[in-house]
Amino acid sequence: MQRSTLDLWVGLFVMGGIGALLVLAMKVGNMSGGGGGETYALTANFDNIGGLKPRAPVKSAGVVVGRVTGISFDNDKFNARVTLNIEKTYTFPKDTSASILTSGLLGEQYIGLEGGGDTVNLGTGDKIKQTQSAVVLEKLIGQFLYSKAAEGGDKK
Amino acid sequence: MSDKNLIEIKDVSYAYGARPILTGINMSIPRGSTVAIMGISGSGKTTLLRLMAGVMKAKQGEVWVDGQRMNDLDQAGIYKMRRRLGMMFQFGALFTDLSVFDNVAFQMREHTDLPEAMIRDLVLMKLHAVGLRGAHQLMPSELSGGMSRRVALARAIALDPMLMLYDEPFTGLDPIAMGIISNLIKELNAALGATSIVVTHDVHEAMEVVDYVYYLSDGKMVAHGTPDAIRNSTDPLVRQFVYGEFDGPVAYQYPGRKLAEDMRLGH
Amino acid sequence: MATHQGFSIRAVGARTIDSVLRLGYATRFIARTIMSSGTSLKRPRLVIRELYFTGVLSLIIILVSGLFVGMVLGYQGYYTLQTYGSESALGVLVALSLVRELGPVMAALLFASRAGSAMTAEIGLMKATEQLSAMEMMAVDPIARVVAPRFWAGFISMPLLAAMFSAMGVFGGYLVGVVQIGVDEGSFWSQMQSAVDFQKDIMNGVIKSVVFGFAVTWISLFEGYDAPPTAEGVSGATTRTVVTSSLAILALDFLLTAFMFGGV
Questions:
Q1: What phi and psi, each to the nearest 5 degrees, are found at residue B4?
Q2: Is residue B90 part of a domain?
Q3: Contact A25 C55 (CB under 8 A)
């Protein structure tokens, strides 16, 4: 084996390996989305966030516009404070509303933003005032049972 | 310890666990001489060679090589000593993944900072000395037994050693290759001004080459002398070995019950 | 390894002592190897050469197996997911199984049988033909000159091979799922990207393959170095390398998985 061919092969091998890692990181993993672009932070308080997790997508009209970066408990208001990082290229008016939605029946939870009509846009650190909590299945079922029971009571 | 002797072995004993391999060996090998250590298989001659090379340390007694007591040397000291020592293994032990050229160049590249051009000249000179300059780009797998032994010899003399050790250099060679090797042993010893020790059981080849013979049996030095003295020895052990008698002090029959008992004679 | 089971208490004791002794030798061996890595650092050519033999020569088997495993995952995943009407999650299934588990584990198993056994056989033969003794007689430490470069080559190539296996597998899954069956290409990739986390999934997979690379190379080199210097000895050691490495890979995989994903 010539020394130069050996070097060439080893070089190709190492490049191939690193290339495969990069492919995994970029194409397969989520390093590409939101990693490089400039973002600004917004906060929103929810009474209940359900199963929302950090890194969950933030969508508006179905388009991913940012990601959830932090979830914490607000000690004054006793509700959840969620930090969102929105890409700089997307702007939203002051009266935008945020709701926690689920993709499909069993899918992951994400935050949906719906723009309002205000002329002033939200800026870094601003707070989204109108929020709608996650739908908690247990609560729904509880309500349903309660109303059924109430109906039954009326009939008597 | 006189300066005249390169190697002195004083009352050396060695044992693997409880099994004694060597007992009470005394030898002194003068500089510039060629010496054979002979004996049948398992007589301890390879162990003796290994003691001289510092592969193992004597449990008892002293081994002196070039004025240094091998017993005292640590790993670094032994490695330093070995740079001045060449050893040829039974079947050559060439590095199978390196070409003939790289095999001979191995030590020069490992131990010296010589420029590649000089290494090339030196390697070709060493290969020329064993008559294989033309084979320098072959791989060891392409060589015959005799040729690989010669390459191994060229590799062993790469750094011009003061002491050459040969472990069974003649085993498995055809008569021509044997003649070549024994001739090389003699010539190289003179050319290098080295001291050579040949461990072998090929009596007749070795007798042609060496100045002095040590005969080992069961880990003991039973006879030593010039080749002529050994040939004319009356010791039955030595006679049986030198003349290849099939029965003698070393019994032909593996120890066991008497033949009559095994054959159920007398029943 | 246990080739025959002794029934007396004494046999159990002897086996235990032997195993502990061997483990001790193996530990000292790897410690010596790592301590003697100076030569490999000073002369990277030695490692590059071994990278060719351990890495480049394992490429074909790794790439082809990766492709096939990915394609099988594509079929099996599709038929399972289809029953829940969630074929679009095929990308997630293929990518996660490969990146987290199959990539590192399968690549390591293949590496053990391709490169590991070759290393054992090579070093065992060098020992049997007295090449290692010859080297020692030339005042060259075989651990530094022969063993350490191979160790580093194995250690470096394993994660690279595992990454290539996974990438190839994802491609295989894509071929079957998208090109052949006709899962929507957009949802295949986007669902995969939103579900596979770089830190949690890909990096953990890489860590696994690094650990496997260490274990397999260690076992292969030790078996070779420790092999009885005969033809039977070397062939036995080669078999032991494959068996021990495979067991070690699977056991380590369990431990690492429990450690990495068990807490979730």
A1: -70, -30
A2: yes
A3: no
Residue C122: which of C41, C209, C49, C19 has the closest Cα? C49
Q: List the B60-65 sheet strands across, edge first.
A: B19-30, B5-16, B60-65, B68-69
- CB atoms near residue C8 (< 10 Å): 8
ipTM of model over 0.90: no
Which residue is listed with tokens 């053990």?
C112
* The 3-state secondary structure of B60-84, one letter per residue: EEEEEECCEEHHHCCHHHHHHHHCC
Asked if A116 contacts A60 with a C-beta cutoff of 8 angstroms, the reply is no
Strands B85-88 and B68-69: unpaired
pLDDT tens track for A70-123: 888 888 888 888 888 888 888 888 888 888 888 766 667 888 888 888 888 888
Q: At what angle do helices C148-174 and C59-82 cross, to 10 degrees?
A: 40
Please name which of B212, B245, B208, B244 lies closest in space to residue B229, comparing C-alpha atoms. Answer: B212
3-state secondary structure (DSSP) of residue B89: coil
Q: Are C184 and C88 in contact (CB under 8 A)?
A: yes
Summarize pLDDT for A112-121 with one digit per residue, the tens. 888 888 888 8
Provide the residue range defining the domain that includes B189.
Answer: 5-262
At C54-92, the pLDDT tens digits run 999 999 999 999 999 999 999 999 999 888 878 888 888
Check B82 against C133: CB less than 8 A apart.
no
Closest-CA residue in chain A for C85? A104
Q: Which residues of chain C are within 8 Å of residue A27 when distances are taken between CB atoms?
A: 170, 189, 193
B176 neighbors B146 (Cβ within 8 angstroms): yes
Residue pair B131/B91 in contact by the 8 Å Cβ criterion: no
- Residue B267 belongs to some domain of the structure: no
Q: Is C67 on the interface with A (CB under 8 A)?
A: no
> Which of C45, C123, C131, C234 to mutate: most B Cβ within 10 Å?
C131
Pairwise CB contact (< 8 Å): B89 & C134:
yes
The candidate with the shortest Cα–Cα distance to C253, out of C210, C217, C224, C218, is C210
Q: How far is CA C64 from the centre of its chain?
A: 16
Task: Provide the number of structural domains found in chain B.
Answer: 1
Answer yes or no: are the C-beta atoms of B101 and B44 closer than 8 Å. Answer: no
- Strand A109-114 and strand B5-16: the pairing is unpaired
Give the three-class secondary structure for A85: strand
Cα separation of A31 and A55, whole Å? 12
Whole-number Å distance between alpha carbons of C123 and C220: 9
Strand partners for B64: B8, B69
C54: Cα separation from own chain's centroid: 11
Which of C125, C126, C130 has its CB closest to that of B89?
C130
Question: What's the rounded Cα separation, in Å, for the pair C63 and A17?
Answer: 11
Alpha-carbon distance of C236 to B39, in angstroms, equals 33
Contact, B259 vs B246, CB < 8 A? no
pTM over 0.90: no
Quick check: B157 and B129 in contact, CB under 8 A?
yes
Residues with Cβ within 8 Å of C152's Cβ and at least 6 positions away in sequence, in order, are C37, C40, C47, C50
For residue C130, which residues of chain B lie inside 8 Å, CB to CB? 89-91, 93
In 3-state terms, what secondary structure has residue B47?
helix
